[in-house]
Specification:
Radius of gyration: 18 Å
Low-confidence stretches: 177-181
Number of strands: 10
Mean pLDDT: 85
Helix content: 25-40%
Number of helices: 4
Distance between the termini: 26 Å
Shape: globular
Strand content: 35-45%
Oligomer: single chain
């Protein structure tokens, strides 16, 4: 199962351009590319309440496809960014679908590796082949996975998170809401 994102036509081209640029960077550095797949296109008609002006818009529904990020028997399933306004929770493209609800409701930056809850930028929910799920802080990933090529792993995580943020940003913009891309 992958999440479906809705993007309005006025942001569609810019989103495609941004994703294309990121895909080129990924290919140059040997990272596995994430692709946006259009699922549906829907035409809508909007009438401005104040002016009565009628405009037509197209809404694109898309999903992100990619290879699951796996290292040393663990799969990265969810990325949680801890920001003052509340957690930002994403399912990672290509990952095994796990219940996201507990992570939406919990706003603590707890790490199962260091068993602490302190001010951290991000945590990830990882799952092993037996179905065990753990939350690991950004700075504990290398120690938890006992992973040697940490810089490459961080590059892959940064790429995936950048794609997710670009798509999420585009989905927040409706017709006539202004650009933030």
């Amino acid at each position: 199962m992958s999440d479906v994102y809705a993007v309005w036509d006025e942001y569609w081209k810019e989103l495609q351009d941004e994703l294309w640029d990121l895909a080129l960077q990924a290919r140059k550095t040997g990272l596995s590319e994430i692709k946006a797949e259009t699922i549906e296109e829907e035409d809508t008609i909007d009438t401005d309440r104040d002016t009565g002006q009628v405009t037509q818009h197209r809404k694109y529904s898309l999903s992100l496809k990619g290879h699951a990020l796996k290292e040393n028997g663990w799969e990265f399933c969810i990325s949680i960014d801890h920001v003052p306004s509340g957690d930002i929770v994403f399912r990672l493209p290509g990952a095994t679908a796990i219940d996201i609800e507990p992570y939406l409701l919990s706003s603590n930056p707890y790490c199962d590796h260091c068993r602490s809850e302190h001010g951290r930028i991000a945590t990830f929910v990882l799952r092993n082949k037996n179905g065990l799920e753990v939350r690991v802080g950004w700075t504990c990933i290398q120690a938890f996975l006992r992973y040697g090529n940490y810089d490459r792993l961080l590059s892959r995580l940064r790429y995936v998170r950048r794609v997710l943020y670009i798509v999420a940003n585009a989905t927040m913009m409706g017709p006539g809401r202004g650009k933030t891309l």
